Amino acid sequence: MQKRLPIVLLSLMSLVAIMVSCEKIIPSSPKEDEILDGPVEGLSYDQLRRFALGDAAFNNEIFTPANGLGPGFVATSCGSCHAGDGKGHPFTTLVRFGQTDETGNKFLDQGGPQLQNRAIPGYKPEQIPAGASFSKFTPPANTGLGFLELVADADILAMADPQDLDNDGISGVPNYAVLPSYVQAFNNAIALKGKYIHRFGKKAAAYNLLHQTVNAYNQDIGITSSFDPVDAYTRMVIDPEISTLTVNNVVFYLQTLKAPIQRDAGNAEVETGRKLFEKINCSGCHKPTLKTVFSPVVALSNKEFHPYTDLLLHDMGPGLDDGYTEGSAKTFEWRTPPLWGLGLSMNSQGGSYHLLHDGRAKSIEEAVTLHGGEASASRNRFNQLSGAERNAMLRFLESL
Amino acid sequence: MKKLFTLIISIGIGQMAFAQIDPKLLRAKPSDTAKNSLNMDAVYERPFIAVGKLPVSVGGYMEANWQYQGTDGISEGQQFQFRRMTLFVASTISKRIKFLSEIEFEPAEKEIAVEFAALDLELHPLLNLRGGMILNPIGAFNQNHDGPKWEFTDRPIAMTQMLPTTWSSAGFGIYGKNYSGDWMLGYELYATSSFDDSIIANHENRTSLAASKRNPERFEEIASGQPLLTGKVAVRRNNIGELGLSYMGGVYNKWQSDGIVIDDKRRLNVFAIDFNTTLPKLKTFITAEWAWIKVDVPDTYSQQFGSRQMGGHIDIVQPVIKRTILGWQHSVVSLACRVEYVDWNVGKFRETGGNIGDELFSVMPGISFRPRQQTVLRFSYRKQWQKDILGNPPARTGAVQFGVSTYF
């Protein structure tokens, strides 16, 4: 018995030591600036609880035929398209079709505006109708959307220059469209003939994050809600397949996802790149700094942030004109995509870049050189940069 | 006063225990100690206790553990888990008619399941009829999965999340064995209840045979109306080891409703190979299993649900101390390591031609202590890398586990 005691005590002490120190031997978190998901700093406990509920619904709720998937669909969950809340992959790139001008979509009765290119067993997926133009949209990153939602219409209009009065070759116009019945206009909204400035999506065709979320559930997953009870496949009104609370939680999650954090901001090459970015006037559209208006969510209220977008539509030239559009945008106009988080795109796109609206650009450099229209002058200046200057600018873009 | 109270309580409990059952009546019924046994014998290769002259033997096992697990720095903290308790009841109805059942309680799953309840009727040593709730002989782990037999708390991922261990079904079949010198050959062939559409429509968001386990109707109704066929051939040579080849397949989906054809018939096919051996001299025990799954997934469905999967594991167990430890004679301390790999979606994206991810690699070193052969205390550390379907940088998981498992 005397001999056993030391062995027993030693074993127990070892076990307790492991239990106490086990936190040290699990893999550590990636650095905060290397990931896109996570809540904005400063949320209260109740807001964080709501964020967690939205996070679970967004990333963990998988839809099957039993809980409403399809019959036609693009993806089986929100997280399928936005891995790690980052940009999407061609696997979940969606196709929209049927609208060529501001008069509206002519193919709504043939499945427009979005193609549900997949279907549950026993059903056939949609096909693009003959004669319909279409465009492919790669899923965007989700991060920082709450800040973008809180930019005042007046600030957006202040960046617009439809007549190019400053002669920099860049105009920029908002996408005015009619609000869906379930969407309330912002307090500071500036309407034009009953239409409101929309800001989310490749063509800026979604007004706010509720509009975006309800559309995505309906058109991407085939999930009806109390906001939009029309089934995308049958065109019939059916019972909601997701609760209103869940939709609201997901909207809150998207609103309170943190903004991407720049990496290596103090690096000399990155700083050189930043200056070149402004010098060749990429910042004419990719506005580095915007600010939010008041929000009951204190963490988002009256904040300055750095998204590198002006939320406006710009003529991007014939090379990027797919012949399809939404709202009042022309087919060659695209909303300036925020550049924040750009350098982390590969971590959510399967290790490769799939940039521009349809993922056709396989590098940041290719994306820049495919710019046309209002961006032609900046693109030309980029092409004239020396190798070192170009590398510096790319390093800056990767740091975002 | 306190000591007196404790003494009275102890005596009281002891008296009550004797009042319930006389331990002298309990006869440990040794498991089949014949050297020539295969994985297919695992259901009978368990310690049973016969009670007096009752015509039944009983036994069981339980598993519990402490765990700390975290992925990329995020952890739910320390957890105590009671994984399962299983009861066996066996009965030799006559010399060539046997019945064995296994009932499993899994509190976390809120599940009480009849895992095995079959009548074995020996027509000839080479031809036995088995009917009831059977364990489909796909691979080795599905048949030989008792917790106390393994050196790790976690079951192999490929065998439980890709293959659906424990996969038991209602059905009938035949089996037999033949010995010849150092050689032994066994076979099994069963027709049973099958899978359903949930293998490609589930909340795992991937093709998952295990998803069908949640459908209780499978014990009464085959979704496709066609039985699942499972067959296995195993050969063993003493001093070399056992090799098993198995197949399971059939139509899995509900393709007709009230006589109306509503979908194509879709098949699944599963192939598995398993091997185990004990190296002479070193006494290193090695067991390995690998499986391939092919599922007919509609082309118009999502590639999220793969049509091909593969994966397996290898466990290496090296006894390092065999002696009396803390008064337990023939105690064994072993070092062990498990390596696992699963690819839940073998193939390439139609859109890019790039490799589809959704794969996992895990290494788990551990140490075990067996005071008796039927009881194991085990400690392990898991390091795991799991890629999502797009092949993004893997989520890194670490897990420390300490567990106990014992037959009783």
TrEMBL record, chain A:
Keyword Heme: yes
UniProt keyword annotations, A-Z: Heme, Iron, Metal-binding
Molecular function as annotated in GO: cytochrome-c peroxidase activity; electron transfer activity; heme binding; metal ion binding
Domain annotation Cytochrome c: ranges: 54-258, 268-400
Keyword Iron annotated: yes
Database matches in SUPFAM superfamilies: Cytochrome c (SSF46626)
Cited InterPro entries: Cyt_c-like_dom, Cyt_c-like_dom_sf, Cytochrome_c_Peroxidase/MauG, DHOR
Entry protein name: CxxC motif-containing protein, DUF1111 family
Taxonomic placement: Bacteria, Pseudomonadati, Bacteroidota, Sphingobacteriia, Sphingobacteriales
UniProtKB/TrEMBL annotation, chain B:
Listed name of the protein: Phosphate-selective porin O and P
Organism of origin: Pedobacter suwonensis
